[in-house]
TrEMBL record:
PANTHER family: SUGAR-1-PHOSPHATE GUANYL TRANSFERASE. PROSITE patterns: HEXAPEP_TRANSFERASES (PS00101). It comes from Frankia canadensis. InterPro entries: GMPPB_C, Hexapep_transf_CS, Mannose-1P_guanyltransferase, NTP_transferase_dom, Nucleotide-diphossugar_trans. Belongs to the transferase hexapeptide repeat family. Residues 2-229 form the Nucleotidyl transferase domain. Residues 243-326 form the Mannose-1-phosphate guanyltransferase C-terminal domain. It comes from the Bacteria. CDD domains: NTP_transferase (cd04181). GO terms for molecular function: transferase activity. Gene3D superfamilies: Hexapeptide repeat proteins (2.160.10.10), Spore Coat Polysaccharide Biosynthesis Protein SpsA, Chain A (3.90.550.10). This is GDP-mannose pyrophosphorylase.
Length: 353
């Protein structure tokens, strides 16, 4: 499981925690992914870490509490997707023809993992890729296949893609293919490993499906993923509460006349005041939304305080920031950790505050 990314598109949230450890619907993204792996019958996972590597082991330990055996391998310098996979090779078990499932650490997916592995084994493939359809594939790496499902090319972010099937970030590798990835240097599976296999005539197969899939790399997608987990659109056995219109974690205090809905999450120890509204938003642990404030489709960092009468719509507030009375922020504004916005200071839309 590749969990080494810094998540720069999710700043300021990732200034204090790596993206795979940010809480989505009450628990880290990685917890949902590990639950999917466990529920698919996978018993042992190696986490390939890098940025803030220590927080993974602090949270998950040896994996026994999650029904798994976990090991950790940390890269000391960025190695790319292929380099990170090669970096864990000493921790892999089994023979050269055994399958190894690779997960990208920032994807929520309803993929049938056992079906992907069966497809790989039946086709005797070197690598099998999970493919998913998107409406506009121009921002993704597209993966055309032939009539038998064999991959014919890897095209990175082309303006006129020949297919709407994209690389969905989950693979099955034959163990011997991982052994052949160059060690000790950055390697991209998309730009080097996969095209090299095709050039050599090695069988690379695609497994398209139409289950839930979401890349959590942007604040809007992060909010959507959390909302979809809370409301049950995306199933996860790691969800720390029942599916419903909202998720309120233990220790949170919500005023009787506050309105919480739209798949919102209220973190442990968070507080929502009288007459406040939290719609589809994610409140991290200890966040405060004071009386009469409205928070829509936003992410509020740990310990941040949203003052009385404040309106937030589609924004990201960093840990410990304070937004005082009657401010209004919309459409992509970001407030960095520890910032203080005085009463009435801003009423605007911005990419950064």
């Amino acid at each position: 499981m590749l969990v080494g990314g810094q998540g720069t598109r999710l700043r300021p949230l990732t200034m204090s925690a790596p993206k795979p450890m940010l809480p989505v619907a009450g628990v880290p993204v990685t917890a949902h992914m590990l639950a999917r792996a466990r529920d698919a019958g996978i018993a042992r996972v190696v986490l390939a870490t890098s940025y803030r590597a220590e927080v993974f082991e602090e949270y998950f330990g040896d994996g026994s509490a999650h029904g798994l055996e976990l090991e950790y391998v940390t890269e000391t310098e960025p190695l790319g997707t292929g380099g990170a996979i090669r970096n864990v090779v000493e921790r892999l078990r089994g023979g050269p023809d055994d399958p190894v499932v690779i997960f990208n650490g920032d994807i929520l997916s309803g993929l049938d993992i056992p079906a992907l592995v069966r497809r790989h084994s039946e086709a005797d493939a070197a690598v099998t890729l999970h493919l998913t359809e998107v409406v506009d594939p121009r921002a993704f790496g597209v993966v055309p296949t032939d009539a038998d499902g064999r991959v014919t090319a890897f095209l990175e972010k082309t303006p006129d893609p020949p297919t709407n099937l994209i690389n969905a970030g989950c693979y099955v590798f034959r163990r011997s293919v991982i052994d052949m990835i160059p060690a000790g240097r950055p390697v991209s599976v998309e730009r080097e490993t996969f095209p090299g296999l095709l050039a050599a005539g090695t069988p690379v197969m695609g497994y398209p499906d139409s289950t839930y899939w979401l890349d959590l790399g942007t604040p809007a997608a992060f909010v959507q993923g959390s909302r979809d987990l809370v409301t049950g659109r995306m199933a996860s056995s790691a969800l720390p509460g029942p599916v419903g219109d909202c998720l309120v974690l233990p220790g949170a205090a919500v005023a009787a006349d506050a309105k919480i809905g739209g798949g919102a999450t209220v973190g442990a120890g968070a507080r929502v005041g009288a007459g406040a509204a939290v719609d589809g938003a994610v409140l991290f642990d200890g966040a405060v939304v004071e009386a009469g404030a409205t928070v829509r489709d936003s992410v509020i960092g740990r310990g941040a305080v949203i003052g009385a009468g404040v309106l937030l719509d589609g924004v990201v507030i960093g840990d410990g920031a304070i937004i005082e009375r009657d401010n209004e922020l919309r459409a992509g504004a970001r407030v960095f950790p520890g910032a203080v916005l005085a009463a009435g200071a801003v009423r605007f839309s911005s990419d950064r505050t």
